[in-house]
Amino acid sequence: MFTFLMIGAHPDDMDLRCGGLATRLKRKGHNVIFLSMTNGNAGHMSMEKDALRERRLLEMREAALRYGAIRYETFDIDDGYLAADIPTRDRLIRFIRKETPDVIITHRTCDYHPDHRACGQLVCDSCYLVGVPMVCPDTPAMRKHPAILSCEDRFSVPVPFRPDVCVPIDDAIEAKVQGVLCHVSQMYEWLPYDGHWQDVLSAPDRESQTEALRDRFHKRFSATVKRFPDSFPRGTVYGEAFQRDEYGTPLSEELYRVMTAAADDPL
Questions:
Q1: Where do the H-state alpha helices sit in 35-188?
Q2: How far apart are CA 81 and CA 148, in angstroms?
Q3: What predicted TM-score, i.e. pTM, was given to this entire model?
Q4: Is the pLDDT of residue 266 over 90?
C-alpha cells in the first residue's frame, strides 16, 4: 500500500484537480490524504469568516466520503494569507514526516492565486529538507524522499504545464462530481458569483443549479483529455494530468502504474 498526500491551498482545490485519482486509489486500497493549507474562510461574497470556516470544514468532511472516506486535514491559516515563510514551512515539514507519503501532489508555483503559488513553493521548499535531521529535529527525518507531482493548469509563464502522468477517470467521474458539489459554499454560491456563471446564477431552483453545475464540471473534467488526446487510452472521456517535479524523488514505474492502471488492476 502506498500513501498519496494531495496538498492544496484551499479546501476544494484538490477535489477539483485530484478527486478522480483519489477515488481510484482508495478503491485499490491505498492511503489518500487531502491537506488544505488554509481554512478557506475568505471564499464567499457575504458570509462572515468564522461561519464560513466552520461551514467549509463540514463540506470537506462530506466530500471526503464521496471519494471513499479519504482523510481530509487542514491548517487553520486564513484564506488569502498563506505565505511561504519559515514557520509554515517547518509546520509542513513536520506534517510530511509524520505521514511519510510516497507521492505528494500540489499546485505549480505559477498561478493566479497567491495562496496557490505559496502552497506550491512551500512543498518545493520542504521536499529536500524533510530528510535533513537538523531541520525540525523534534520530528524524525525521512530516509526516503517522496515523489512530487504538480496539478494541471493553463499558465504558460515561465513554462507551460507538461502532462507526464495522465490518469483516466471515467470510472470515477460520478464520485468526483458528487464530491466537488459537496462544497456548496463554493460551487453554488461563491464561484458562480466570482466567475459570473449566469447559467447557475439564473437557475430558478437548486435542482436546476445542480444540473447546470454538473454540465459545467463534466465539460471541465473532459477538457484535459481533449487537450492531451495522445496521452490517454483511446476512448477516454475524462482525465486528470500531472507534471513530474524534479525537486522530488523520480516517480517509480510501480507508482506510475498504480496511478494510471485500470480500476480492476490490483496494483
A1: 49-66, 86-99, 114-127, 173-181, 184
A2: 24
A3: 0.96
A4: no
